[in-house]
Amino acid sequence: MKAVIIEKRFGDKLIFSNKTFQIPDNSATAILGPSGCGKTTLMRILSGLDDDFAGTVHPRPQHPVVLFQEDRLSERISVLSNLLAVTDDRKKAEYMLSHLSLEGEERSHIHELSGGMKRRVAIARSLLLDFDVLFLDEPFRGLDDAMKSESARLIMETAKGKTIVLITHDEEDLKLLGTEHIIRLG
pLDDT (tens digit, 9 = 90+) per residue, 57-112? Predict the structure, then answer.
């Protein structure tokens, strides 16, 4: 995937001008940089969520899945219901929960969970969708080292042979996902 961004603005603020970004297929690419440098904006452009820019992205992902910084879960339904909202494969949903140390929480409502538990449900839900490109915006936010490692292992298992775009400011995350390419912003 190649993005040529002639110009991207938010009002009077210029975010990108005459920039080209290359995302190799079937590998992990990280977008690194400090807060406010345009990492999430670039992810939104690459994934097709933001088309308010001058330029092109080619080829566009056919089935992008985005794990946002915010968990974006349905708070008043159960953990399992959140997963079954995106898949009919109950066994696969239960597999994800067990590998993210959430077994026994299937009937818990999202608003009853800790921040780290919510994050793991959000990771599981994103991995249950069919994707050709997986966009991960600060995927390990709120997770301890053991859960980061297990979450990364599950992501790598699920995304094997597909394209991953990791947005982070933490260079330790690069090792967890076997990142092969880096785009530095800021």
Answer: 999 999 999 999 999 999 999 999 999 999 999 999 999 999 999 999 999 999 99
| Radius of gyration, alpha carbons of the chain | 17
Residue whose token pair is 């969520």: 49
Instruction: List C-alpha distances in Å: 44 to 13, 37, 82, 184.
Output: 17, 14, 23, 16
Give the position of tokens 């959140």.
82
Element (H, E) at 41: helix 39-47
- DSSP annotation string for 63-120: SEEEE-SS----TTSBHHHHHHTT-S-HHHHHHHHHHTT-TT-TTSBGGGS-HHHHHH
Is pTM, for the whole model, over 0.90? yes
- Specify the amino acid at residue 135: F
